[in-house]
TrEMBL record:
Keywords: ATP-binding, Helicase, Hydrolase, Initiation factor, Nucleotide-binding, Protein biosynthesis, RNA-binding. This is RNA helicase. It catalyses: ATP + H2O = ADP + phosphate + H(+). One of its GO terms (molecular function) is RNA helicase activity. Residues 139-309 form the Helicase ATP-binding domain. eIF4F is a multi-subunit complex, the composition of which varies with external and internal environmental conditions. It is composed of at least EIF4A, EIF4E and EIF4G. Residues 320-481 form the Helicase C-terminal domain. It holds the Pfam family Helicase_C. Its EC number is 3.6.4.13. Residues 108-136 form the DEAD-box RNA helicase Q domain. It is an enzyme of class 3 (hydrolase).
C-alpha cells in the first residue's frame, strides 16, 4: 500500500474541491504510465472507502472521471485541458442520465417543495399547474442556498425556477438589494422582471430592471428608495455598482441567465468585474439552454461545489417543435418563398429571423410593399420603440415579427406557432434559442429553415450538434400549424 503514497495526485481532494474542473493543475504535464496507474488505483480505493464511510455529495462523479481518464491522450502526450473538457461534455451527453446532478430529489408538485404560501399563490396565479422537469429538480436546491448550474432547453421554465428560489429566500422586511440577476439583453432582463413581479405578487417583492437605454438618474432614484431584487444587463449594473448607487452589502444571491451568451466575447470581462465587487459568500446560480465548456469556467473561479442539473445534448431540441427546411437555390429567391408561405398558411403569430440589422429593415420594407403586415425590432432601435413593438406583438395586435438573434434569448411570447429562419444562424448554439420561441412549455410549433447552397454545411452542423434530422418541408405544412 505504501506505493500509493508515491502518486503525486490526490483524487479524493480533487473530486471534493474541484469536481468538474478537469485536473488541470495535476495532469498538465507529460504523465507516464506508472503515475496514471497509481492515480487510477488510488481513485478506486478512495471511492470504495468514502462510499462506505462518509457521505460524499459528488461521489457519483468518480465513475465519470474514470471513464474520461480512460480516453486521455496516449502515454507521453501532453495533457490538453480543453480536450478533457470536451471529452467530459461528450461523456455527459452520451452516457449520462437525463439530469446529471449531485442532488437527486425530484418534486412532482409545487406544494411538495416547502414554498411559502404566498409564493405558491403567485405561482398558481401565473398559470403554472405542475412543475416542469427542470423545476422539479432545480427549485429546491436553489431555495436551500446551494450554488447551482442548471441547463435545460429554452421554454422549459428556467426563469421561473430561479425566480422562485430567489423569492423563497428574500427577507421582505429588509428593503435592500438581496439578489442580483444578470441577463444579456434588455428585453430578457425586463421579461425576468415581469416574471419576478408576477410570482412575487402576494409577497410584496420590490424589483427593478437596470438596463441600458433608460435614465441613469431614474435607476439611482429607485435604488436609493430600496428594492429586494435587481435584474439588469452587465453594463448598467456595473455602472450602478461603480457609482455605489447599487450597494452589494446585503447581496446573498447572484444569478446569470443565459450564461453561454453572458460569458461570450464582450460580456465575460464585465461579469468578472461584477463578481469582484460581490460578497465572497454570495450564492451563485448559472442558468442556460446550452452550456459549452467555456461557460463552465465560471464554476472554477466563483462557485462552491455547485449542484449540477444538466441535460443531454440530444434532448436540447424542444419536443413538440416540428423542424423542416426549404431548398432555396439563390438568396434572392427567399423573399418569394416567404411570401408564398404566408399566402398559403393561416398563422396566428410568427417570428422571422435574419442575421443582420440591415436585412431586418430591408425585409420589413419588402414585406410591407407586398401588403403583408409585419413588425420589426433590432438593436439599433431606441429602447422605447422596441418596448412598444414587443408590447404589440405580445398582445397579438402584431402577428409577424422580423428580428435578429436579439429576440432569441428568453423572450416569452406565448402564442408563437411558427419560426422561420430566413437566414440560418451563424452558430449552431443559436438555433436552439431561435426555435425555442415556438411551442413553449409543451405547446406545438413549427420551425422552417430557408437553405441555400451556401447554407448546406450549417444545416448539417446543426443536425449533428443537436442529433436531429431536419426533414424537407412537406406539401401539407398547413395541417401542422
Amino acid at each position: 500500500m505504501e506505493c500509493f503514497d508515491t502518486c503525486p495526485l490526490d483524487p479524493f481532494y480533487m473530486l471534493m474541491e474541484r469536481p468538474l474542473p478537469l485536473l488541470h493543475t495535476s495532469l498538465n504535464r507529460k504523465t507516464n504510465k506508472k503515475v496514471k496507474c497509481l492515480f487510477l488505483a488510488k481513485l478506486i480505493l478512495t471511492f470504495l472507502y468514502n462510499a462506505i464511510t462518509v457521505d460524499v455529495p459528488n461521489f457519483v462523479l468518480i465513475s465519470t472521471y474514470m471513464a474520461v481518464m480512460a480516453r486521455l491522450a496516449p502515454d507521453g502526450a501532453q495533457f490538453d485541458a480543453r480536450q478533457f473538457d470536451s471529452k467530459m461534455n461528450d461523456l455527459l451527453a452520451t452516457e449520462g442520465k437525463d439530469f446529471f446532478t449531485s442532488y437527486d430529489e425530484v418534486y412532482d408538485s409545487f406544494d411538495a417543495m416547502g414554498l411559502q404560501e404566498n409564493l405558491l399563490r403567485g405561482i398558481y396565479a401565473y398559470g403554472f399547474e405542475k412543475p416542469s422537469a427542470i423545476q422539479q429538480r432545480g427549485i429546491v436546491p436553489f431555495c436551500k442556498g446551494l450554488d447551482v448550474i442548471q441547463q435545460a432547453q429554452s421554454g422549459t421554465g428556467k426563469t421561473a425556477t430561479f425566480c422562485s428560489g430567489i423569492l423563497q429566500q428574500l427577507d421582505y422586511g429588509l428593503i435592500q438589494c438581496q439578489s442580483l440577476v444578470l441577463a444579456p439583453t434588455r428585453e430578457l432582463a425586463q421579461q425576468i422582471e415581469k416574471v419576478m413581479r408576477a410570482l412575487g405578487d402576494y409577497l410584496g417583492v420590490k424589483v427593478h430592471a437596470c438596463v441600458g437605454g433608460t435614465s441613469v438618474r431614474e435607476d439611482q432614484r429607485i435604488l436609493a428608495a430600496g428594492v429586494h431584487v435587481v435584474v439588469g444587463t452587465p453594463g448598467r449594473v456595473f455602472d450602478m455598482l461603480r457609482r455605489q448607487s447599487l450597494r452589494p452589502d446585503c447581496l446573498r444571491m447572484f444569478v446569470l441567465d443565459e450564461a453561454d451568451e453572458m460569458l461570450s466575447r464582450g460580456f465575460k470581462d464585465q461579469i468578472y468585474d461584477i463578481f469582484q465587487m460581490l460578497p465572497t459568500k454570495v450564492q451563485v446560480g448559472v442558468f442556460s439552454a446550452t452550456m459549452p465548456p467555456e461557460a463552465l469556467d465560471i464554476t472554477r473561479k466563483f462557485m462552491n461545489k455547485p449542484v449540477r442539473i444538466l441535460v443531454k445534448r440530444d434532448e436540447l431540441t424542444l419536443e413538440g417543435i416540428k423542424q423542416f427546411y426549404v431548398n432555396v437555390d439563390k438568396e434572392e429567391w427567399k423573399l418569394e418563398t416567404l411570401c408564398d408561405l404566408y399566402e398559403t398558411l393561416a398563422i396566428t403569430q410568427s417570428v422571422i429571423f435574419v442575421n443582420t440589422r440591415r436585412k431586418v429593415d430591408w425585409l420589413t420594407d419588402k414585406m410591407r410593399s407586398r401588403d403583408h403586415t409585419v413588425s420589426a425590432t433590432h438593436g439599433d432601435m431606441d429602447q422605447n420603440t422596441r418596448d412598444i413593438i414587443m408590447r404589440e406583438f405580445r398582445s397579438g395586435s402584431s402577428r409577424v415579427l422580423i428580428t435578429t438573434d436579439l429576440l432569441a434569448r428568453g423572450i416569452d411570447v406565448q402564442q408563437v406557432s411558427l419560426v422561420i429562419n430566413y437566414d440560418l444562424p451563424t452558430q449552431p448554439e443559436n438555433y436552439l434559442h431561435r426555435i425555442g420561441r415556438s411551442g413553449r412549455f409543451g405547446r406545438k410549433g413549427v420551425a422552417i429553415n430557408f437553405v441555400t447552397t451556401d447554407d448546406e454545411r450549417m444545416l448539417f452542423d446543426i443536425q449533428k450538434f443537436y442529433n436531429v434530422v431536419i426533414e424537407e418541408l412537406p406539401s401539407n405544412v398547413a395541417d401542422l400549424l
